[in-house]
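I'll show a typical protein example:
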Amino acid sequence: MIIYSAEGLTARSQARDLLALAVKECWGLSPLPEIARRKGGKPYFPGHEDFHFNLSHSGNLALCALDGAPVGADIQTVKEWRPGLPERVCSQPELSWLEGQSDLWPAFTLLWALKEARAKESGLGLTTSIREIRVPPPETDPVLFDGLWFRSWSGPGWAAAVCGHSEPPENFFKKVLDIPTV
């Protein structure tokens, strides 16, 4: 599994620029192949079914993961979510973990990113109850859980996670995209 990130995005389309850069560097595919969507909405490259990827963006941030097996990636800017949301979308063990955290919203955002990454890996998206999407408590090391690998990261104002069949790396490639100034 290889992870790429970028910050400073000014348009949603720049997340696709990050994917194009990652695909070119890792797999030598240039230009970016056509992207199609499977029944559940998971993107793929027709004609390149052995190349799995997932892309996420939030605010001015983007994250993409590449692998030889299904993979999910999610990045979120930390915000104050709706009151009561954790109780509606978290399992009891997740709520217990949240209660032990010093700052609710960054911790909740990290859990949310893990849940999104797992939903995206499966290709089903958020079609089931979010509470039912099982994820391990966030850790700094990779975690094997339910036969899948998870890893999460966080920094000031953001949280990110990946889920897949390969052990995620400790670090990801931080890229600077050519962002035109207007």
Summary: The mean pLDDT is 93. The chain is about 25% helix and 30% strand. The longest strand covers residues 148-155.
